[in-house]
Design a protein that fits this description.
heterodimer; A: six-stranded mixed β-sheet; 17% strand; B: alpha/beta; Aldehyde Dehydrogenase, Chain A, domain 2; 2 domains; seven-stranded mixed β-sheet; six-stranded mixed β-sheet
């Protein structure tokens, strides 16, 4: 892998090998990008604004083409496509355009009096040439969100979309070429299979050779702790939001989608009934024909999900759904109750429309359950119990934590989006995107007027005492020592 | 070498006689230790003691720290502030021992030891104690109209068990400063001080063992083997201070566990000197910054000067004048200047001096004395770009001066090279200042002084490109060792049916408006328009 100044990686099965990355044009492309960056063009605010507006135009002019590409690659309904991949990106673009000037401005910082007279500020500057490797499940959204940050911060960019969503990949290659500045932003297509969790390691190891900083947006099993509420209205909305948070985004193939549910044994029957009811309400009696649920991305993932269900003890834990159609890569919204904790479906990230429900004696047991497992990208908790809420905030660790709903943290510009531990590191969205692709340079301006003579050798006891007093802001002591009226600070 | 913490694990009440015995062996040996002899001596004198820090020992170590962390002990404000208070007490109580160790390792003058290490670390500790409550508080975040009604906050939490690998040139500061950040953020931490500053390494092992909570904070001494063994473990963050070559090894090891890193590296920090300056002050600041700061062995020390051909002679005269003023006519014997850190480093610097490419260009100094590990303050004029001195970070008392036709060419010269940790400019010219700040990329930039930004805890201290990634000091230290968790509270009142399938055009219109955040748009959509 060549020298990039920053790499951001979205993965769930992103595919890269050294061989495929080194296509004929890559070396030439990189050289051009570096020259463009060095010319200073991308640093101008007018250039950055132009590119961001260019992205807006792509989303406005070509909304239909995007919907079609997403339908083609993932069977997404165009409302889902708009909501998750166009609407969110438009929102982020507007947020960036509104705030760019403010983000780019140097920030004055407070200085301790001992440094007087000086002024200090933090100046954000672009890193240089950056690489974005994106994922297949939200192929437009997860390519463009980081791209917004990289461009807002003034970098030159190479974007490598996932080849598992080929229509979207070519769409991006074509529109970015046509709407944006080609001398600074390029799309590289292609790749070949490597496998999920290893890719983060491969990318970071390659980056280590060049000391390239990375942001890794990974996944994990995002649990939803489901407590019971005193009102049936809230129990119902909870069930509806869980159905939505599990099956409503790319058929469960979302890094922040609900992976599994934790609930109390005694509440299980009600929960399962509600879930079934809402699945029927959202997807009808024939979900395969409803077009309201995405398909599984490819045969490989389809087989993977099928094999999760095929494990004997798992198969018998299915209480709803379980219908699969390889032809149309369709898997019905499925619910399982208490599959074995050591089964693959409970140890690997599911990334599909299969929802295991694990029952506990007490809802508080969920905290230890979660703590015993790798930190997830998102943790959801449906509860009105304030004590449980507080305990979840302080005793568990996750990229994000959301109460009484799911997924929505993704659209809040002021919240950092990223993982911790096994779910990755680094963060973006809103200003965090800008910061992610910037270097915050510390700048101090001094004058020549005041120059403390006791800064310099040869060292004497008196100088030491003066410096000690100065560093303690003991100005009276400073004066007395200087006048020889005091000998020790 | 010794693993004091291993004893702590086995003998919780510590201070066993074999422990003291080992420590005395350590202190008796000199800076130029032969590690293999030490290990053999230890093994033969006490066969029950662990002679080597191996994978098993590392596994035990991280297991203990992880269970301390999971028990929640390090998360409380009380624990964090008690540790920081103990650290401050340690610095107060043991000032003399610290100065002695610094003198033993680096012949650091007491002033430098105090100002650049002890005072700075005390200040860092005090800032953390004062601000800790604030730093630990969740920060409210604004929510979008689309998620109304909701409230959001960002909650800082510790990462877990972290590793700090420190350097030899400021062995107290660069070990304890990151540890302060790790503790303030609520982590359990292992410190691996540099074996090239052995007196400080062993002093830190002893003092941190005595003053701090051993179940959460440990020191592992050692060299390459011990560091490699540590790097095989799974950490929640690795903080490394040192050079680019080892940084690549650290990051590659971190990659295996997807561990985030902070790398505080170095580079050639240039000083661009214009003729429009106060020469006396400039020259003092450069001489003080170069030779009065660990004798050039500082990551942000001025590495080389760029000035115009015309101004060079004037500047050089002034530098020579201040060199004599600060260090006397015989700097090799001045008590006010540090010596070279260790043998290997001395050999490397000698090689830079002996480089054919700079023969005849040494215009001041150049004397060396291997037995006392001293090299005189040396100035070299117009060393060629491909000379050793101009291609690697010097990290010593050699100052090359590069001359250019006009001062603006200096900016181009700097930008054609890897990004340094710091870049300095001396000038009264406003345009030159602006051009420098906007076009020179470096970790930090100081105009009309050198190294000062280190002392300002409201500024992040870190590199960019080859000079590193991540930053610390002040709140940035706390942030470096924290995860900022996004927390969103939703209510059940706003439940837009538009979210759920089956999808209809009406729902799409409403969603568009919701995402747009426009109240008017939402109202229109609700009424069926747009």
């Amino acid at each position: 892998m060549n020298i990039y100044t920053k790499t951001i990686l979205h993965i769930y099965e992103s595919k890269i090998t050294k061989k495929n990355m080194m296509n004929d044009h890559l070396e030439v492309d990189l050289k051009e990008l570096r020259e463009t960056f060095n010319s200073g063009k991308t640093k101008e605010s007018s250039w950055r604004i132009k590119q961001l507006r260019g992205l807006l135009r792509i989303l406005e002019d070509r909304e239909d083409d995007i919907s079609m590409a997403l339908k083609q690659d993932l069977g997404k309904h165009h409302v889902e496509a708009y909501r998750d991949e166009i609407g969110t990106v438009v929102k982020s673009l507007n947020n960036a355009l509104d705030n760019l000037k403010h983000w780019m401005a140097a920030k004055k910082t407070r200085l301790p009096i001992a440094a007087f007279p000086s002024s200090a500020s933090l100046v954000p500057e672009p890193l240089g040439v950056v690489l974005i490797i994106s994922s297949w499940n939200f192929p437009i959204g997860l390519s463009l969100e980081p791209l917004i940050g990289a461009l807002a911060a003034g970098n030159a960019v190479i974007l490598k979309p996932s080849e598992l969503a080929p229509t979207c990949s070519s769409f991006l290659a074509e529109t970015i070429r046509d709407y944006l500045d080609n001398s600074a932003i390029k799309v590289i297509e292609g790749g070949s299979d490597l496998g999920s969790t290893r890719v983060g390691r491969v990318v970071m190891s390659a980056a280590a050779q060049h000391l390239t900083p990375v942001t890794l947006e990974l996944g994990g099993k995002c649990p939803a702790v489901v407590d019971s509420f005193s009102s049936s209205r809230e129990n119902n909305i909870t069930a509806k939001r869980i159905v939505w948070g599990k099956y409503g985004l790319c058929a469960g193939q979302a890094c922040i989608g609900i992976d599994y549910v934790l609930t109390e044994k005694k509440y299980l029957p009600n929960l399962v009934e509600s879930l079934k009811r809402y699945i029927k309400q959202c997807y009808g009696d024939d979900p395969n024909g409803s077009h309201s649920i995405s398909k599984i991305v490819n045969k490989k993932h389809f087989s993977r999900l099928k094999s999760l269900l095929d494990e004997p003890m798992v198969k018998s834990s299915v209480v709803y759904g379980g219908v699969l159609d390889e032809e149309s890569l369709f898997i019905e919204p499925t619910i399982l109750v208490d599959p074995p904790l050591d089964s693959a479906i409970m140890t690997e990230e599911i990334f599909g429309p299969l929802l295991p429900i694990i029952t506990l004696e007490n809802i508080e047991d969920s905290i230890n359950f979660i703590k015993a497992r790798p930190n997830p990208l998102a943790l959801y908790a449906f509860t009105e119990n304030e004590n449980l809420q507080k305990r979840l905030v302080s005793e568990t660790s996750s990229g994000s934590l959301m109460f009484n709903d799911a997924i929505l943290q993704y659209v809040v510009d002021a919240l950092p989006f990223g993982g911790v531990g096994g779910s990755g590191f680094g963060r973006y969205h809103g200003k965090f995107s800008f910061d992610n692709f910037s270097h915050e340079k510390a700048v101090i301006m001094r004058g020549f007027l005041v120059d403390f003579w006791f800064r310099y050798p040869p060292w004497t006891t008196q100088k030491l005492q003066l410096l000690k007093a100065g560093l303690r802001y003991d100005y009276l002591g400073l004066v007395l020592i200087a006048l020889g009226l005091k000998s020790k600070a | 070498m010794l693993v004091h913490d291993n004893f702590h694990t086995r003998y919780p009440t510590n201070h066993s006689s074999s422990h003291r015995h080992h420590r005395s062996i350590c202190l008796q040996t000199h800076a130029s230790i032969n590690r293999s002899i030490l290990t053999t001596t230890m093994a033969s004198e006490d066969s029950t003691a662990p002679a080597v820090f191996d994978t098993d020992a590392a596994n035990c170590l991280t297991k203990e720290l992880r269970s301390t962390f999971l028990a929640g002990k390090t998360k409380s404000y009380e624990w964090r502030s008690s540790q920081l208070k103990s650290l401050l007490k340690m610095l107060d109580d043991c000032e003399k021992q610290i100065c002695d160790a610094l003198f033993s390792d680096l012949a650091k003058p007491e002033m430098e030891a105090y100002i650049h290490e002890i005072a700075m670390i005390k200040s860092s500790c005090k800032v953390a104690l004062k601000k800790l409550k604030d730093w630990m508080k969740p920060e409210k975040a604004k929510t979008n109209l689309g998620t109304f009604p909701s409230s959001a906050e960002i909650v800082p939490e510790p990462l877990g068990v972290v590793l700090v690998i420190s350097a030899w040139n400021y062995p107290l500061l660069l070990s304890v400063d990151p540890v302060i950040g790790a503790i303030a953020a609520g982590n359990a931490v292992v410190l691996k001080p540099s074996e090239l500053a052995p007196a400080m390494s062993s002093l830190l092992a002893k003092l941190l063992g005595k003053y701090l909570d051993n179940s959460a904070i440990k020191v592992v001494e050692g060299a390459v083997n011990e560091t490699s063994v540590l790097l095989e473990q799974k950490w929640d963050k690795i903080f490394y201070t040192g050079n680019g070559r080892v940084a690549r090894i650290v990051m590659a090891a971190a990659a295996k566990n997807l561990t985030p890193v902070v790398l505080e590296l170095g580079g050639k920090s240039p000083v661009l000197v214009d003729s429009n300056i106060d020469l006396a002050v400039t020259s003092r600041r450069i001489v003080g910054g170069k030779w009065g700061t660990n004798n050039g062995q500082a990551c942000v020390g001025p590495d080389y000067i760029i000035t115009t051909k015309q101004y060079a002679p004037v500047l050089i005269d002034s530098l020579k004048h201040n060199l004599v003023k600060f260090f006397g006519e015989d700097p090799m014997n001045s008590p006010d200047i540090s010596r070279i850190g260790h043998d290997r480093h001395f050999a490397r610097l000698k090689k830079l001096l002996d480089d054919d490419k700079i023969s005849g260009k040494i215009i001041h100094g150049g004397q060396t004395d291997k037995s006392s590990l001293k090299i005189a303050p040396t100035i070299v004029l117009d060393a060629p770009e491909d000379s050793l001195m101009m291609s690697e970070e010097i990290f010593g008392p050699l100052l090359p001066i590069v001359t250019v036709e006009k001062i603006e060419d200096g900016i181009e010269f700097i930008n054609s090279r890897p990004k340094p940790l710091a870049a300095y400019l001396f000038t009264n010219n406003k345009q030159l200042k602006e051009a420098f700040v906007s076009s020179v990329s470096a970790g930090g930039v100081v105009i009309n002084d050198v190294t000062l930004h280190l002392m300002v805890d409201t500024l992040p201290f870190g590199g960019v490109g080859e000079s590193g990634m991540g930053a610390y000091h002040g709140k940035f230290s706390f942030d470096a060792f924290s995860h900022k968790k996004a927390v969103l509270y939703r209510s059940f009142y706003g439940d837009a049916p538009a979210r759920y399938p089956p999808y209809t055009p009406g729902k799409l219109r409403l969603l568009k408006a919701l995402l747009d955040g426009s109240l008017f748009g939402i109202i229109r959509a609700l009424f069926g328009f747009s």
